[in-house]
Amino acid sequence: MKAKGFSMRMIRHSIVLAASAVALTACGGSGGGASGSRDYIRAVGSSTVYPFATAVSEKFAQTGAKSPVIESTGTGAGMKLFCAGVGAQHPDIENASRRMKKAEYDECQKNGVTEIVEVQVGIDGIAFAEAKNGPDMKLTPEIVYKALAANPFGKPNTAKMWKDVDPSLPAEPILVYGPPSTSGTRDALKELIMEAGCKTDAATAALKDSDKEAYEATCHQIREDGAYIDAGENDNLIVQKIAQNPKAIGVFGYSFLEENPDSLKGIPMSGIDPTYATISDFSYPGARPLYVYVKKQHLAPIRGLAEYVKEWTNAWGSDGYLKAKGMVIAPEDVRQKNAEVVASMTLVDPSQLK
């Protein structure tokens, strides 16, 4: 299975990370300025972006540069590391399966990370999938919300079986393996799918203006009674669990579905299958952009950082090698705009962040 080979790549990068820890400590500075230097690049963040960042790293290393250290920490946890400060003891890049939040940008600024470059590197989708011999589930955002919300429409979730949510669904226990709270995929699940289901109720939708805190709790809080299982940042683990259990559903980035066509099948969302085409044109409800964030203050002290970021522009085209890895290629105008951002290292406009 392709997932096995991909897991081995993750293990190899974990070994590189452990071997590099001593060097990272030795060359560190003390936070406020870009003190210290490194002869390798360090990136943290999204498990969805991880395979793409790894592919770019491998290509970059073929130039004779040291292989970048890529850590799959999850988008949220990666943002905390990225925004903690400037200097060789802090990451140079944050890989993200969602856009940086304004609160995260403000935290960066507070800690001296004042020059941040945002690059959209492609598109992905939050795929819902089941085993090849699964029951051919058909979902909608409303069904997902009713099945997974802690308090759907403000009432405790008592649904145990899928048929309790919708009579057309199987009489099987609700069992969904998905990403943890630190993951950008989890954020996208809540914001793109669950919130859409939540807003099907007019009274609940009205809370967004009248009581934002209640709205967030009602629409975004996921149940913790075993129906939804936090499977960690290793999306391959989710792939393996649902491949072995036809009664389970998995939630992960589309590339993991595309990597495992022999063991998994996508679940339609509102009648639309998660495919390259439907994600590319955003007709699939779970489509989302993917980003890398670059610490511009590290360009001078961190050897090869500018060249590594430039390699993304060679990789993300319609004939680039990331397409074979499962990345959905962004439209030409988006690629051109972001290539210009890379060339000039244009800083992100904080007014565009939420």
What does this structure look like?
It is a single chain. The protein is of the alpha/beta class. The protein has 2 domains: 2-123 and 290-352, D-Maltodextrin-Binding Protein, domain 2 (3-Layer(aba) Sandwich); 125-287, Periplasmic binding protein-like II (D-Maltodextrin-Binding Protein, domain 2). Helix content is 41%, strand content 14%. The chain is built from 14 helices and 9 strands. It has helices at residues 2-27, 50-61, 75-82, 102-110, 141-148, 162-165, 184-198, 202-210, 212-220, 235-244, 254-259, 276-280, 305-315, 332-344; strands at 42-45, 69-70, 93-96, 116-131, 176-178, 228-230, 249-253, 264-266, 287-295. Strands 1, 2, 3, 4, 5, 6, 7, 8 and 9 form a 9-stranded mixed beta sheet that branches. Mean pLDDT is 90; it is low at 1-34.
Features:
alpha/beta; single chain; 41% helix; D-Maltodextrin-Binding Protein, domain 2; nine-stranded mixed sheet; disordered N terminus; 14 helices; globular; 354 residues; 2 domains
Query: What does the main sheet amount to?
Result: 9 strands, mixed
If you compute it from the alpha carbons, what radius of gyration comes out, rounded to the nearest whole angstrom? 20 Å
CATH topology of the largest domain: D-Maltodextrin-Binding Protein, domain 2
CATH top level of the largest domain? Answer: Alpha Beta
Distance between the termini: 40 Å
| Shape descriptor | globular
Query: Any guess at the CATH architecture of the largest domain?
Result: 3-Layer(aba) Sandwich
Proportion of residues in β-strands: 5-15%
Q: What's the helix count?
A: 14
